[in-house]
Structures are given as C-alpha cells and as structure tokens.
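ok new one. same drill as before - structure tokens go in, u give me an amino acid for every spot. 396 of them this time. try not to just spam alanines like last time pls lmao
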C-alpha cells in the first residue's frame, strides 16, 4: 500500500488532505516526495512563523533532549519556569502568570476555567460571552465557545453557558450581560472565521465594559499572536490589555505548546489542584519556545510589517484587475482574500504551481507566510496567484 492507501485504511477520516506528500521543509520552503519545491504561505496554519527547522529552535530542542524529554509537573523543570517567566513578562511584568499546555484548545480551556472559578468566587457567575463566527478550538468546551453552528452539529447537548454577540458591535455585547455573566472571550483577528479584524473602538469599549461589570476579558491570540500581525500580541495595535491571553501554534515553531497568560486578579484565581496537564509545558517544547522568544525582536517585527505592506500593495493591484477578488482583509502577515466564489480550486491550482495557501469559510483565501519571507518571495507568490486568477477567469 502507498501512503494514501494506508492513510485511508488506518487514519480516521477527519482531514481532507491536499495532494501533497511532504518529504522535507526548511525556511519558507517545502519539498514533496518527488523533489518538487513549494513556497509555503501557510506555515502549518501559522505554526512555523520563523520558517521550517529554524536553526536556533532546532539547536535548543536538541540540547534539551540530550538532558531529558519529560519530567512530571510535580517536579521542577528549569526550562519550563524560564519559558513561563518570559511569557508572563510579555503580558505584565508585575503580575503576569502563565500556565503551559499542549495546544490552543487547551490554552483556551484553561482561560475558560479561570473565568468560571473567578465567577464561582464572585457571586456564582458562570456565563461567558463569545462572538459569532469565532473559533476557539476542537475540544467540546472550546467548540461550545465557538460561534459557528457547523461546529456543533453532533455535539448537542453542549456545555453551558456560552452566549454569542456580534463581532465589532458593542451594543450586542451589552444586551447579553446579566447577573450571571463572568467573562468575554474574543479574537482580535478572527482567523479561522474568515480573517476579520476587530475595530480599535470596539476593543477599547469592550475593555471599559468589562472593567465596569467586573468581567474578565480574554483574548484568544492562538493564531494572531507571536508576531503574526507585526506586534508580539495583536492587542498591542489597540492599546488594550486583556486579563487573560492565550497563545499556541507558533509559540514553539513546530513543537506542541500552548499558553494561558493571566495578569492582575485573573492571575491569582487558581490554587493547587485546580488545573493541570501531564505533558503541558514539556521541557523540549519550552526550550524551543525560549529560542523563538529570543528571535521575536523589534527588528524582526518591523521587517515583517514592511513585507506585509508590500504584499498588500501587490494584492491591491490584483484586486483592481480581477473581479473575483471582493476584499483584502487582515493585519500584518495574517491576510484574507475574500472571493465572490469558492476558493478551493484556486488553492489546488496554486499548489500545482508550487505555492501553498489555504481557503477558509469556503471563499476566503488565507495567507500565513513565515515572518521571515522576503519581497522576492512575495513576488513569486503574487505571480502564481495572478496566474490562478487568470485561469479562474478563463474557466468561468
């Protein structure tokens, strides 16, 4: 049996895979089993923000692996504490505290548990406001917090009690607040939902409202964090700080790690036994994360913003030429190209031509290239995209 036949026989049918068998990857490139080279503008869903097999990350992970791969969280692993310190200080140098998990879903589960315990100790509150079109993970609890009905199909009855407001509409949030409300969870940029960016006024009003009502404000930055928008946290663009922020995906540049970082009153909610994880904060992953954090310099972030500006200018030219493109959305190198027709064929065309992109919500092409790409890489991607739009126009 070949790999595709084995996958069909032995792997649960949950991933609709593209026709690409990955042999190796380095930097912004991927090679298939036949030696064909691809420019990767998806990075494993914003996981390898520093490119594949980043030298410093590989070196740090190997060095830790030479010492040990795992110890129980009942004992001290210095590299884990160092990673927690670095992340905590990113949110709040005075009061920040971090829990390290294995994924974004687990990080969001932790944030939800913090909110629920905070509510339990402040009048028995438990209701959390989320947003339509949001996405917070694949566990049952985080899917219950996800504002997409298609994600709920066979899961009813869902965990209670999540209610959904309209993104960028503060009035819809105010209408949902009652004596049982304890928190609001929001993505500054809805990545999986189609690359929609929060308005600055909206997030400022949300922060003010949470302060007035003694609610925790949770930012899900699993996709938008770690420099993806040109700032370490996306919320830095807004001048608004949450009580809890979640990270994952690119935090260890390819190794599984997630983080829930809390500050102020939210940082002191948990006590011994309230939460835990066998593998959360794995030392090898933490060593990789420390190497990532050292490279998240102002210079790197500034360069990524310059590259994103160049990319958007090029995409703007394509939008003027091809009516198929309705809108260009996003922040930094988190880019959505909203089409007037399904984008699956465009994705497949680009893959055949050597460019890896993604389509979410059926009609939104999603670009998540490494932060380290060059203008030359942008030019290469734009050429393939233009060829794809030409092909789509002719086919029509």
């Amino acid at each position: 049996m070949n790999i595709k036949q084995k996958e069909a026989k032995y792997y649960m049918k949950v991933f609709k895979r593209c026709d690409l068998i990955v042999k190796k990857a380095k930097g912004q490139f991927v090679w298939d089993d036949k030696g064909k080279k691809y420019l990767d503008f998806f990075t494993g869903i914003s996981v390898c923000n520093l490119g594949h097999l980043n030298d410093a990350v590989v070196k740090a992970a190997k060095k830790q692996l030479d010492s040990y791969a795992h110890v129980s969280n009942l004992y001290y692993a210095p590299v884990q504490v160092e990673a927690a310190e670095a992340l905590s200080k990113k949110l709040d140098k005075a009061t920040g505290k971090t829990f390290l998990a294995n994924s974004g879903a687990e990080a969001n589960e932790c944030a939800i548990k913090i909110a629920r315990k905070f509510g339990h100790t402040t009048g028995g509150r438990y209701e959390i406001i989320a947003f339509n079109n949001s996405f917070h993970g694949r566990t049952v609890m985080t899917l219950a917090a996800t504002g997409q009905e298609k994600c709920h199909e066979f899961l009813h009855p869902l965990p209670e009690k999540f209610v959904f407001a309209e993104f960028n509409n503060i009035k819809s949030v105010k209408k949902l607040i009652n004596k049982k409300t304890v928190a609001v969870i929001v993505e500054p940029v809805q990545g999986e939902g189609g690359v929609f960016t929060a308005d600055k006024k909206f997030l400022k009003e949300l922060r003010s409202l949470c302060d007035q009502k003694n609610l925790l404000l949770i930012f899900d930055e699993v996709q938008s964090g770690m420099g993806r928008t040109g700032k370490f946290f996306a919320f830095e663009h807004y001048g608004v700080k949450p009580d809890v922020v979640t990270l994952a995906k690119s935090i260890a540049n390819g190794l599984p790690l997630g983080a829930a970082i809390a500050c102020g009153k939210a940082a002191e909610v948990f006590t011994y036994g309230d939460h835990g994880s066998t593998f959360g904060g794995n030392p090898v992953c933490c060593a990789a994360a420390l190497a990532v954090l050292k490279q998240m310099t102002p210079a790197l972030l500034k360069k990524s913003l310059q590259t994103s500006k160049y990319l958007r200018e090029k995409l703007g030219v394509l939008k003027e030429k091809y009516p198929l493109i309705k809108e260009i959305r996003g922040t930094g190198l988190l880019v959505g190209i909203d089409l007037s027709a399904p984008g699956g064929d465009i994705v497949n065309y680009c893959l055949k031509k050597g460019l890896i992109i993604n389509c979410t919500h059926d009609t939104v092409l999603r670009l998540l290239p490494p932060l380290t790409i060059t203008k030359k890489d942008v030019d290469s991607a734009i050429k393939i995209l233009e060829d794809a739009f030409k092909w789509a126009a002719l086919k029509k």
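The first strand starts at residue 22 and ends at 26. and btw The chain has a mean pLDDT of 97.
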